[in-house]
Amino acid sequence: MIFADKALLxxxxxxxVRIEVLNGKIGSVSVGAAAQPGDTRxxxxxxxxxxxxxxxxxxxxxxxxxxxxxxxxxxWTWREMMYRFALSVTPEDVGILAEMAYVEMLxxxxxxxxxxxxxxxxxxxxxxxxxAELSERIFTAAEHTGIALTHLPVFYAHAGFGPQAPDxxxxxxxxxxxxxxxxxxxxxxxxxxPQDRVGFAPHSLRATSADELTALCAALPGxxxxxxxxxxxxxxxxxxxxxxxxxxDWLFDHAEVNADWCLIHATHLTPEETAKIAASxxxxxxxxxxxxxxxxxLFPAPEYLAAGGRIAIGTDSNVRIDVxxxxxxxxxxxxxxxRARNILAPEGGSTGRHLFEATLAGGAQALDAPTPQIINGxxxxxxxxxxxxxxxxxxxxxxxxxxxxxxxxxxxWAAGVHVVQAGRHIHRDAVExxxxxxxxxxxx
Length: 444
Ligand code: ZN
What we know:
Blueprint lengths: L1 E8 L2 E11 L2 E6 L9 E8 L1 E6 L20 H12 L4 H18 L1 E8 L15 H13 L2 E8 L21 H14 L6 E2 L2 E2 L7 H10 L5 E5 L3 H11 L3 H8 L6 E5 L5 H10 L2 E4 L1 H7 L6 H6 L3 E4 L9 H16 L12 H16 L15 E5 L8 H9 L4 E7 L2 E5 L2 E2 L2 H15 L2
Parallel strand pairs: 1-4, 5-6, 6-7, 7-8, 7-9, 10-11, 11-12, 12-13
Antiparallel strand pairs: 1-2, 2-3, 4-14, 14-15, 15-16, 16-17
Helix pairs in contact: 2-3, 2-14, 12-13
């Protein structure tokens, strides 16, 4: 049993909440209860956050692309470094890098990850005997660390609009439509835990042709669909040059974009495109830390939220893994450009509470999971925030976690398992040692 001084329940904050965990789910929630001997006592309990967009292996080069080269540094020079890394890791490495990322996600308060997984083949581009060899490593990493997985195998076929043939640096990513559909089926069969899900992800409009996109959507109905879109100005320009339309406009004319879709980044939008995404009930998968790191640009969040748009957050490149930091940068990007404060909250509301609840719901929708709630029968995916000052108010705990100091995740339960204790994942030491070994070898 968990006893919390306060907890954020579906109807708001309650004090002295006792939560029973039973077979991975919440068995009961008692409000105004008394702590019993043997209870795990914590300060504040909230639901675990979904991380809607991760490329786990990129955790390996976190912080290693920050040296200025000649001229203007851009996304494209970062991508060269990422490709060099992607081409050198073994299946075992992929599993270890993912375990490190997932340990850190759980420590940060993420209890589900959407793994946008595009490393599929051997280092020379030859498929493994098991076509899902590297997907297998992702499932295993999720199982070892305890994080719930929405696995999103990525379809990648071209180097650019045209379609252009893939280049050598992309050889581990490439599929035909038929072989990709087989991969999704193998991943579905590999799924052993009830909380895991399998969707799919056409990588982007530059890596997927119009015909391929149509074929994939027809062949894989009912699955969540994630796609990178309009992240870079160059991508928008290339799309305009080839299709005569901007990426989001083109997508809406060529696919039935609805609540099954998650549009990753969607950074460069016209007001009409912004309104279109909001009305479609698709989720905008925002990755503010990575978008800032890569110099992508700024999503038009105020206009999109005012139109009722749904949002989620993702750690994407895993350069940093921190729920509070994603939400803070999401808001701060707007403050810096609008020269105003508390932009993304409704009038009179707490910015932290609003952003937390919006991304909780949007993230779950995009990852094919129930909205995380502290309620009987829900998955026991719970995050305790420590608050040494022990201030009793509710929303301010979220605001102080996201924008201030003092408050941070202390304990996390994933499907009822107490995987993070006193801020550390129970397997951190072992995973960190294996991770360091991989880095030393790959970077040698
Ligand atoms: Zn991405």
